[in-house]
Design goal:
alpha/beta, 305 residues, TIM Barrel, two-stranded antiparallel sheet, 6 helices, 26% helix, eight-stranded mixed beta barrel
Amino acid sequence: MDHKKPIVGLVLFVLGLLTLTAPPTAAAPTSGPVVNGAVENGPVENGAVVKGAAGAPGAQRARPSPKLFKGFAFDTCTAPPLSTMAAWHSASNYRAVGVYYGGRGRHCKTQPHLSKTWLRSVRNMGWRVLPLYVGSQPPCVIAKNKKGVRIGNDPVAQGRTEGRDAARRAAAHGILDGSPLYLDIEGYDLRDAKCKARTLDFIRSWNRTVRGRGYVTGFYSSADSGITHMEASRLAGVRDLPEAVWFARWRGGKPNLNKEPVFAPGAWYPNRRIHQYRGNVKERHGGHTLLIDRNLVDAPVARIG
């Protein structure tokens, strides 16, 4: 999550379910073997791995197979100093870090430590990286601090522009083709049909652009809004949906990748899920304290050049 924001509650979840056009069922997932940490069967189409899929017609750049990670990750608003990253790698069970590397909606716009050198350094320490891009937000976004960066009247053009920016900034940070870029969309009101349509147009356009530049499309949102919306769209056969999902559900604070009720067991499976199970907690490891969100990961991570 991009910090200092609310999580959408159970009431919105129930209301959002009323918008689903079909029950959450899916066929068994199609998948190939995992070889050297990379799924060998191409990208995901509408939440299911598709062998040989090529992404946007005529626009997809050939990309390496994704690099996968299974384990615990934290994300925090500002990339920590390298001394903190070294201490946490030695003293905690976290092995991946979420990094807010760009986007007009990013809360912590000043990132004094984040650079290509920082990313290479944490990679060399043994960290995996989850790049997050906080772009424009839904017109019906709930968080007050995101209302100033809402999607405009031409969501397709805006998604394309911000997708180009996401890919350009990723490349400038040394994040290579085949890496996931996770679009951060904060909680929004699923009862607003016009807002939902505009948001979906923006997300799909962003995805087409990012995939066309050789990256894997990821999507972060609350389980009760954005993820519910993506699952309803998947069931409706909508194309250009995210290839990996990062769902926030803090209730109970326990991680579980396989029992999230808002999407079917075969959706975004295997190796395409992150559960953010706790947020805004302070942890101290190796003498260094951070305010973080906790995540359980089975998903693509960045390839750092």
